[in-house]
Recover the amino acids of this structure.
């Protein structure tokens, strides 16, 4: 990562650590120089940026199956509290172009040709629906942008979200994309995916009310996250 993006992540972690989100975030440990970003020489003679962060206890949500209604609601409320706090956060490096920003999902579409025909027929209509979204009707802010089930830490009982990890995809984007990404993974492997999504969304809405256009866009945005993942996975495999 560039120093600017690392500073974005550091600033955001410091900011969230002071907000009443009910979550525990990793804390930065300064180097002996006093800096939170150190530069070290690698064995290949290249310089690398290094940071040290504290450990946060918990288990990945992906390993906490089955997901209870209590846990799904905890996820929605935690994400809403974080998004509400981030409305007051800004950083120049957050205004960047990146392929995991759902507003940039068109970058994934060229990889459709790498998919088998049956899968392409499933995925292409999702991108068509994405292209019809009215982005001007949706609120924007800096977002976490990566609430997948391996970045979400829950307590030992598997009933409460305690932390969110990995801030490498932070970006200024459409705020409801944060919830949509969480829904994409919360729905995976569920006997009733929409019921699971509804629990997360209802809890989010109770803390940070969604607008009608945001509710309308949620399903398309969640599906677009999975469609993009399929395309990028095919590209990486190729």
């Amino acid at each position: 990562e560039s120093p600017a993006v690392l500073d974005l992540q550091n600033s955001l972690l410091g900011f969230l650590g002071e907000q009443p989100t009910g979550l525990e975030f990793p804390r930065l440990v300064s180097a002996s120089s006093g800096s939170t970003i150190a530069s070290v020489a690698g064995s290949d003679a290249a310089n690398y940026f290094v940071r040290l962060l504290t450990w946060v206890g918990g288990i990945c949500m992906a390993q906490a199956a089955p997901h209870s209604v209590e846990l799904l609601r905890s996820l929605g409320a935690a994400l809403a509290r974080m998004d509400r706090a981030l409305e007051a956060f800004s950083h120049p490096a957050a205004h960047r172009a990146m392929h995991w920003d759902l507003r940039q999902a068109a970058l994934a579409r060229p990889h459709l040709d790498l998919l088998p025909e049956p899968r392409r027929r499933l995925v292409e209509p999702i991108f068509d629906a994405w292209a019809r979204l009215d982005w001007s009707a949706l609120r924007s802010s800096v977002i976490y942008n990566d609430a997948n089930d391996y970045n979400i830490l829950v307590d030992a009982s598997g009933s409460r979200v305690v932390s969110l990890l990995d801030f490498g995809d932070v970006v200024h984007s459409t705020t409801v994309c944060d919830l949509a990404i969480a829904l994409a993974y919360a729905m995976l492997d569920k006997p009733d995916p929409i019921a699971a999504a509804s629990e997360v969304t209802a809890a989010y809405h109770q803390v940070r009310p969604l607008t009608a256009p945001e509710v309308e866009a949620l399903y398309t945005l969640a599906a677009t996250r999975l469609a993009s993942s399929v395309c990028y996975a095919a590209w990486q495999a190729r």
